[in-house]
Amino acid sequence: MSSNFKLFYTSNTEKLGKEVASILNVPVGKYHSQKFSDGEVFVRFDESVRGQTIFILAQANMPYSNLFELFLAVDAARRASVEEIICVVPYLPHSRQERKDKDRTSIASRVVADFLQDVGVNRLITIDLHTNSIEGFYKIHVDHLDTSKVFIPHIKENFQENLCLCSPDFGGLKRIKKYKNELNSDMAVIHKERLKPNQISNMEILGDVSGKNVVIIDDMVDTAGTLCKAADLIIQSGALSVSAYCTHAILSGNAKEKIENSALKNLYVCDTFPNIEVNDKIKIISCAPLLATAIRHINENKSIKEYYEG
C-alpha cells in the first residue's frame, strides 16, 4: 500500500509490530527506548516526524512501564511537531474498572483515558474493550475492533458439527448472538454468582449442551478460574468437548496450570499481549491482520465497518 503515514512500535511490541508492518508492506519507523538503572524510561524518535500522521503500536499491559512508555512516546512525537498521533493499543489497561462499584473508589479506565488524551493522542484503536461504555470516556475518536473477523473463520474450520456457542455471563450475550448469526449454531449462557473479583460462588448453565461441541467466547482470560470451572461444568452436563476463544490472554497467577488441569480441550487467544507461552492447550491466533486492516482503512479514509460486513 502507498504510505503517507509512519508506523512505530514500543519496546515490548516488536513481534506484533513487525507482523503488522509486513502485512501493510511499510517500513517500521526508527524509534529508540531504554530503561535506566533506577527504572525510569527514556524514548526518542530517530527520524523526522514533522507534519506526519503516525501510528504508535503498543502492547501496554502490566508492568506500568509499558503504558508509561506509550505516554512518553506520544509526548515525544507531539514535541517533534507531528500532524496526528494514532495510538494502536490492542489491550487497554484497566478496562475492568469502568465504574464505581463502592464508595470512595477510582474509575481507573477514565484515568487512562484522561492521560492518553491529555498527553496528545488524536485517535485510538483498541480491541474488545471489557465494556463499550469506556468509549464514552474519550472525546477523541475510538475505533473499537472486535475479534469476530479472525475468530469466526477459525471456528468454522475447526468445529463443523454439533456446535454450541456459550457465553460465560449475560454481559457477553450480544457478542455471542453475533457469532451465532454467522455460524448458525446453538447457544447457551452461564449464570454465575460472584463473591468478589476472580472468585465465583455458584454457576449454572442455561441451555442444552448435551452432545455438543461447546465453544466459550469471552473478551479475556485472567486467573482462568471461572473459565475452567465453566468448562468442567459443561463436560459434566454431557458436552462432547469444550474449547474457548478469549481475546486477551492475561493469564495471571497459576492460570496456565489451571487450564492444563481443566476439561478445556483448547484455549485460543490473540497476541494482544506479548510473549504468550503456548502449550498443548493454549494456541495463538494473530490479531495483526485485524490491526493492519484498521490502519489501512483509516489511512485510506475507508469505513472500518465495511470490513466487518464484507
From TrEMBL:
One Gene Ontology CC term in the entry: ribose phosphate diphosphokinase complex
InterPro entries, A to Z: Pribosyltran_N, PRTase-like, PRTase_dom, Rib-P_diPkinase
Top-rank lineage group of the source organism: Bacteria
Stored CDD domains: PRTases_typeI
GO biological process: 5-phosphoribose 1-diphosphate biosynthetic process; purine nucleotide biosynthetic process
Gene Ontology MF: a single term: ribose phosphate diphosphokinase activity
Keyword presence, Plastid: no
Matching SMART domains: Pribosyltran_N
Record's signal peptide: none
Catalysed reactions listed for this entry: D-ribose 5-phosphate + ATP = 5-phospho-alpha-D-ribose 1-diphosphate + AMP + H(+)
EC numbers on record: 2.7.6.1
Pfam families: Pribosyl_synth, Pribosyltran_N
Gene3D superfamilies assigned: 3.40.50.2020
The protein's name: ribose-phosphate diphosphokinase
Naturally occurring in which organism (per UniProt): Mangrovivirga cuniculi
The organism's taxonomic lineage, starting at the top: Bacteria, Pseudomonadati, Bacteroidota, Cytophagia, Cytophagales
